[in-house]
Amino acid sequence: xxxxxxxxxxxxxxxxxxxxxxxxxxxxxxxxxxxxxxxxxxxxxxxxxxxxxxxxxxxxxxxxxxxxxxxxxxxxxxxxxxxxxxxxxxxxxxxxxxxxxxxxxxxxxxxxxxxxxxxxxxxxxxxxxxxxxxxxxxxxxxxxxxxxxxxxxxxxxxxxxxxxxxxxxxxxxxxxxxxxxxxxxxxxxxxxxxxxxxxxxxxxxxxxxxxxxxxxxxxxxxxxxxxxxxxxxxxxxxxxxxxxxxxxxxxxxxxxxxxxxxxxxxxxxxxxxxxxxxxxxxxxxxxxxxxxxxxxxxxxxxxxxxxxxxxxxxxxxxxxxxxxxxxxxxxxxxxxxxxxxxxxxxxxxxxxx
Length: 353
Hints:
This protein is of the alpha+beta class. Helix content is 24%, strand content 39%. It contains 6 helices and 22 strands. Strand 19 (313-317) and strand 20 form a beta hairpin. The protein is rod-shaped.
């Protein structure tokens, strides 16, 4: 009986002891802080083009072999289309035009002797291997009527259109850039509008950053931002170039587009993921709390050995902490989330420094 009584007394003491739960705490002290608002985005070229032709024919290589990753310079010939048939048509048409002009020269010399030399010079400048020379200047209405009656104007403009069409057999790089992808190889027959390759401009990048509607005014007012890579190293700076007027219905965010300028010694590549940050002053007194004590917009504070939930407003977040408002100076914040709170349990705080 004595042993049983001692055992019962021991169990009661253990039960009473188990009702006390020790929790880490911290006294709340609000401060006006400078914090960095962060988001993320992916680097994309600010100029991408699908290469295609307006003419049909056999595709031919240009000054370099076009493969994904190939770099090129502005003005280089990237592709061409076999233009032998078109060029033969152009030469035949120029020959016809020269004959038409030759037949008109005797009457032109008779009617307008002072204009003879300019038309002879124009005739001598007609060369299929060179660009079409400009028509001589017409000095009076009679000369204009004469040239029109001999169908010279109409044939000249048809010849000019044929020359412009010949230029469409070549694709000259409009900027310096890199090849993203190719969908046709030299030797294949290309048709009008068919995509041959996709190219992007190098040196001109932008980052599309999704920003919540609550924060977008802050980002717009700051304008500038800094960019860090996955290691936290600052690699570039930029500024807002445009803001999308369309809101993502699921995330309630809008896309903000930043220009990207790599810092000296750093490089930015197409497709690279970057963190975007802006420096801004918090407008209210805030306190930094660990992420572990925040749940569903609330934290727990300790009052008379009891846990009391308090609603807080999240101002900014980091990987392991939050910046919140809604707590008063002197309150005792519980630094860990307590999942179970049995009736009668007493909580004893242990200050964590």
